[in-house]
């Protein structure tokens, strides 16, 4: 479904991503894992063309993205940046913006209906006419996810969707994402820092180290050895009540 | 599958209609203010004569002259200049992501003032400025060139990759101070009459506009408003950051550059005709935002209408405050703007 073929990106002559290749299928949740500065956010932005790759290709359902207009890419890939802040517009307006790649100059009843469906799906009905500047972090996060979903993309790229949320909102957001990924047969790629959350909600793991792919696969790639190599940390993985938990023990370098 | 119940959409459309109503209300207020503006003046004219002078364009009596050649062009200039400043301010604040962005803070006004002083002091133009209903072409051309110089510099800076929008704002402040110093330098070596003329020019004055100027300003305003309205959803996307806009398929750099170019040009036209009119470009969008929010479907026209209303009302005040003296409207807008601005600042601090 999504295929990366030798994707490289350089900034000011410095290589940030180095020949990253992997394939992921639709209906799956994938986590992009690695230390700060390993190129996770850059990889997301290179996939949807916000950053122009130095070489390599991104294919969605076999179609190479580099030949497409920004609008055509936006119909295939939805994106959520690391930080969002609300403005003086309502939740409905904010989500309606996600229809932009689909309408020409003015919104149609079809777009409004799509927004209404997504708002209801994410349980945002009561907030629909509230100003986004007044929302809590968790609410705003859902609004931004709703905007990406209303684009009707095939791939959803989320940069740290749960990092600044409380534990309840973290679990809620992740399980909604997983449900919707299955329902709409999407491919959802999230940058995550919490390995326990990743193991609990995600089907595929993409490990990045120094801008290169370290491993890509299902749960079996998440071993203590892989964590040591990618994060430089000793860790154990235990199951508590059937839920896998990653417990970091300490730095592996000393 | 979700039901076909569209209650949220219905609620939302009601909100949209309310925002449209606000624009309509502004339009009515503007019409009322325009009527008042035709009525106010040292020559007391009954409403019936005003209307007959408006309907009967061929009339050649004194009333017709006052209405057709003095008061109506003046009111029209207020509406067009206020509209231009309001829309330019709204666009600049969005594309530069800064509530302080405005034609005044970005250096365009000071560039125009420098150009005008240059024409008056070096090229001997505009000795009659302020005396007639027209301003000499050389003066206008020179102040327009000065404004373009500022626009060019800002655009050059904005087009360099990696220069932040904050840097663009700050360089506008620096540019203003540079042009201010250059103007003072010119004035230092000028004669009394020239200094007086160049200082007088900077007082934004609606009396400078005749029908030719109005026609040009109107054309430019109509063109920019249409262009920005076509772009309204792109500006909405920009509110959520460059990356979100790019992910929605918008070419952000191109959008930012064309928006800056067009809004600055609009202001350059207005300023070179009328002089410096402070605070309208900064305030009008903030006031409009209080009522319709940041959605550019409503904000653009509301800012234009609010700017027009502000300038028209300021002009009426300028004419009745110390009769028979007609104060330059720029003085009124800045006087009224400062407390309004401080109020907005403290209001922002609370939330």
In spatial order, strands of the major sheet of chain A run: 6-7-8-3-9-10
Number of strands of chain A: 12
Q: Please name the two chains that share the biggest interface, counting residues whose Cβ lies under 8 Å from a Cβ on the partner chain.
A: A-B, 42 and 28 residues
Q: Name the CATH class of the largest domain in chain A.
A: Alpha Beta
What is the CATH superfamily label of chain B? ABC transporter involved in vitamin B12 uptake, BtuC
- Give helix and strand order of chain B, one letter per element, not per position: HHHHHHHHHHHHHH
Question: How far is it from the N-terminal to the C-terminal residue of chain B, by CA?
Answer: 40 Å
Helix-strand layout with pairing:
The complex is a heterodimer of chains A (254) and B (351).
Chain A: E1 2-11, E2 14-24, E3 28-33, H1 40-47, E4 55-60, E5 63-64, H2 70-76, E6 77-80, H3 91-96, H4 109-121, H5 137-150, E7 155-159, H6 167-183, E8 187-191, H7 195-201, E9 204-209, E10 212-217, H8 224-231, E11 233-240, E12 243-251
Parallel strand pairs in A: 3-8, 3-9, 6-7, 7-8
Antiparallel strand pairs in A: 1-2, 1-4, 4-5, 9-10, 11-12
Helix pairs in contact in A: 4-5
Chain B: H1 7-39, H2 47-55, H3 62-95, H4 108-121, H5 137-159, H6 165-188, H7 192-202, H8 211-230, H9 232-238, H10 242-247, H11 252-274, H12 280-292, H13 296-320, H14 329-350
Describe the structure.
The complex is a heterodimer of chains A (about 250) and B (about 350). By secondary structure, chain A is an alpha/beta fold. Chain A folds into two domains: about 1-220, P-loop containing nucleotide triphosphate hydrolases (Rossmann fold, 3-Layer(aba) Sandwich), CATH 3.40.50; about 225-255, no CATH class. Chain A is built from eight helices and twelve strands. In chain A, the strands form three sheets. Chain A has a six-stranded mixed sheet with strand order 6-7-8-3-9-10, with helices on both faces. The termini of chain A are far apart. The mean pLDDT of chain A is about 90. Chain B is an all-alpha fold and about 350 residues long. Chain B has one domain: ABC transporter involved in vitamin B12 uptake, BtuC. Chain B is built from 14 helices and no strands. Chain B has helices spanning about 5-40, 45-55, 60-95, 110-120, 135-160, 165-190, 190-200, 210-230, 230-240, 240-245, 250-275, 280-290, 295-320, 330-350.
